[in-house]
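Need the bound structure for S-adenosylmethionine, inputs here:
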Amino acid sequence: MTETSDKTTHFGFTNVPEHEKAGKVQGVFTSVASKYDVMNDAMSMGIHRIWKDAMMDWLAPRPGQRLLDVAGGTGDISFRFLERAGEGHSTVLDLTESMLVEGRKRAEAAAMSESLDWVVGDAMALPFADNTFDVYTISFGIRNVTRPQEALNEAYRVLKPGGRLMVLEFSQIPNDMMQKAYDLYSFNVIPRMGQAIAGDRDSYQYLVESIRKFPDQETFLSMVRTAGFENAKYRNLTMGIACLHSGWKI
Ligand SMILES: C[S@@+](CC[C@H](N)C(=O)[O-])C[C@H]1O[C@@H](n2cnc3c(N)ncnc32)[C@H](O)[C@@H]1O
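Answer from helper R.:
Posting the output first, comments after.
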C-alpha cells in the first residue's frame, strides 16, 4: 500500500496536497513547452537574457567543467555555460520531458549535442552519485519545486568538494511602490500574453502567483546555508525582481 502524506503546499495561490504539486507543475510546463522560449522574451521584454548573462558573469565557467543544470528546461543556461567555458559538459535535468525535447532540438540546430545530456528527473531526488559535478545551476526552477530545501540538500550532495551552486530566481523588490507597479504588470499583462501567445492563460497565472510565494532574498540565503554551502551570497538583479544566490561546497 502506498502511503501519501496529508501535508499541503502552495501551487500558486492555491493550496494543494504536497504529493499533487509536481504533477501540476509538470502539467504547466508540458502545456507551455513549445512556446516557452518565445514567451520568455515577450514577458520579460528580453530581460531574462541579461539576467542569465549576469549569472554566467558571476559563475565564470572554466574549460573542462562539468555542469548539472537542474530544471534546465530548454537549455538556456547550459548553452551559455558551454559557450563561455569553451569546452565542458552539461547534464540538463528536468521534470518535464517536453521541455527537454525543445532543448534537444536547439542543441541539434546549434551542433552542440555532444556536450549535452538530457535527463528526466526531480530536483529533490537526483539520480547521480555524491561528489559528481563541478557546478550546479537552477534557473527559474526552484520556486516550482515542492520542497526547495530538499533540492538544495541534493545540490550539495552531488557537487564535488570545491563545487559551486548558483541559483537564479524571481525574488522580492525591497520597495513597496516598485513592487506594486511590478504586480500590476505581472498579474494583468502576463496571463493575457500567455493566452495570446501560448493559448494558455492559467499556466501563466500560476507562474506569476508562484513568484509571489517564493521566499525573499535573506530567507533563501539562510536555506542555502542550511544545505551546507559556505561563502553564500546574493546579488539582486533589476532592483530585486530577480536574484542570484551563490554558494560553495568546501
Ligand atoms: C521556468 S522553467 C526554467 C527553464 C530554464 N532553466 C530557464 O531558465 O529558462 C522551470 C522548469 O523547472 C522544471 N521543474 C519544475 N519542478 C521541477 C523539479 N522538481 N525537478 C526538476 N525540474 C523541475 C519545469 O519542468 C520547467 O522546465
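Comments: Residues 18-32 form the longest helix (15 residues). Residues 133 and 150 are 18 Å apart (CA to CA).
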